[in-house]
Specification:
Number of strands: 5
Strand content: 15-25%
Order of helices and strands: EHEHEEHE
Oligomer: single chain
Radius of gyration: 13 Å
Number of helices: 3
Distance between the termini: 28 Å
Largest sheet: 5 strands, mixed
Helix content: 10-25%
């Protein structure tokens, strides 16, 4: 299994450093958020998801990872995570399946 930092959706997360705040948008089942929590020394991994079905799985999967915070929300809401404006260190996103044919995974570093 490849390390999480080798995946396009999270390339650069290794530069975030210990105690970093990493945001996983459109988290789905939480696989990326959990891998980041497990393989890095991030202080907070915030997994954002709006689908009620996905949120059920995300909460179950993240339960064993205390640094993963699940947030129910829509990533198009400008007020989402406003308290973190300019405070996050890395942000990742793998677009939902219907959009993947038109979009590439995104990661930004602060």
């Amino acid at each position: 299994c490849a390390p999480i930092a080798s995946l396009p959706a999270v390339t650069g997360v290794e530069r975030a450093g210990p105690g970093a705040i990493v945001v996983d948008l459109c988290s789905g089942s939480g696989a990326i958020a959990i891998a980041v929590a497990d393989e890095t020394r991030a202080g907070r991994v915030i997994a954002v998801e709006r689908s009620p079905a996905a949120l059920t799985w995300l909460r179950r999967n993240a339960a064993g990872f205390p640094v993963v915070e699940v947030v129910a929300g829509d990533v198009t809401d400008p007020g989402l995570l406003s308290e973190l404006r300019d405070a996050w260190n890395a942000i990742g996103n793998v677009p939902p399946a219907p959009l993947q044919a038109h979009s590439a995974p995104v990661l930004a570093s602060a």
